[in-house]
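Hi there, hope your week has been kind to you so far. For a while now I've been wondering how a particular protein folds. I'm sending you its amino acid sequence along with the backbone structure tokens. Could you read through the record and tell me how the tokens relate to the sequence? Take your time with it, there's no hurry, and the full record follows here.
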Amino acid sequence: MSKYRTHTCGELNLDNKGKNALISGWINKKRDHGNLLFIDLRDNYGLTQCVIDKSSAKFKELEKLPLETVIKIKGKVIVRSKETINTNILTGEVEVSIEDFEILGRTKELPMPVFSDQEYSEEIRLKYRFLDLRRKKIHQNIILRSKVISFIRSEMQKLGFLEFQTPILTSSSPEGARDFLVPSRLNPGKFYALPQAPQQFKQLIMVSGFDKYFQIAPCFRDEDARADRSPGEFYQLDIEMSFVEQEEVFQVVEELLVKVFKKFSDKKILSEKFPRISYSDAMLKYGSDKPDLRNPIIISDITEIFKRDDVKFEIFKKLVKSGSIVRGLVAKDTKDKTRSFFDGIDKWAKDQGSSGLAYFTLEKNQKISGKGPVGKFFSEDALKEIMKEMDAKIGDTIFLSCGQKENVENILALAREKIGNELKLIDKKIFSFCWVVNYPMFELDANSKKIKFSHNPFSMPQGNVNNLDLSNPLNLKAYQYDIVCNGVELSSGAIRNHIPELMYKLFDIAGYSKKDVDEKFSGMINALSYGAPPHGGIAPGIDRIIMLLADEKNIREITMFPMNQNAQDLMMNAPSNIEENQLKELNLSIKKKD
């Protein structure tokens, strides 16, 4: 028997009635009822209520102990009276009558309470993360994370995947985000890079003859913080498979994610066969390649209608003549909304940096007309055509945006989310997955006007690879795909380009010479030259999966030891200064700013 406990704080029940128990944990809460002192003792597994009578010699000593003191309690398990049963905890039908106790760990004054989930500043929470992690909600989130990762490992093995670990110290890559660099002591003046992802290594594993690989992979990117990504490191379920096409990758990922989300959430999965949406359709209908399909609002392009003579909305008509587009969305059945609702949406749009949203509500008296600031500019026939194109009915409101394609997509994507939430159209009790497919292989850089890769440069283009038409590269589609859930991108993936000759041609379009490719991607291009199988993969983000399952908006709530927004670890004081002799060993010196 352990000298610290016979049971955990989440274990005692009616079966233990009348038995002696030894439990250890933190004092979560104390309640002094005069003659009785109640102590809620907490450990990783739960809470147990303990009680001591004022007549006990230990009463006064226990009474003085501050919350979060670690103690061991010895006592007898007794049954609670009916009116004091607590159904919210596993041990709620019993309590421990304290006979003796021992202090195992004392505490200083707490900078923040542990027994409540009250919000505190990020600085306090991260500086005292070890206390923050004791709090119920975040403690349960971290346990959930562990269970999900263990389950994923088990399921991947059942699917025939082997787990391998790829290097952490590797070479810098010219593609993607900014690398974290590590100076080499044994190779003065040279640097390793921490991997942004195991992309090249997992492809090399396929070239090495292994068939199915996975890894819960740490990835490192020196980029600014976001709500869904820590400014430094994150984890992904890295997957790669040989001799597969796109659909076979989809089947594996769908089967896995359906099992994970069913096991760890009570929410319904809208469709277990995830719908496929082309990138172009996603940008048109949702303004984003991360569509939240719980939201029924669809965006429509009605640029052509503004070329009609019976549309007198001159501001938009002039912009259309100069190359702008007009797109809109329908807010259903808003006839009872007040003017302040519509003006509020318009003001909100301006706050997002756009010129606002034009709007009118469809109504019918003798004829169909538009009620609102711009409704008078449309004839009845024009309104009928708008209703047909946008599947709108009398009583619906049309919101319109005109401008350059990228700007219109951006504001309407935000407006779709805003209006969906305002009208309570989004069912928060479901998960809606989809695949976004058929990404363009290349895109035009807005600043340089040069062609660049739009997604992953190592992806396989669609079409006959032995006779590919490269005369208009901007029309070329790739076997690239994203998986999205509830408007959150979980992952990007692709069928890989395993043909060196084709890779040289594609990189040449993006401005890389054969010499550039050989130098920058030497390991990859060399390996592909020795017989590479067709292969493909994907890497769903572990952090984002856990965020969805835990219903959290910020990665901090599901990460054990996150950094703050400035990429600082306040608890361990990282990054920190290093000693002069360490710099000398690395042949480095720090140049101080003037």
User: Anything to note?
Assistant: The chain is about 30% helix and 25% strand. The two ends are 65 Å apart (CA to CA). The first strand starts at residue 20 and ends at 32.
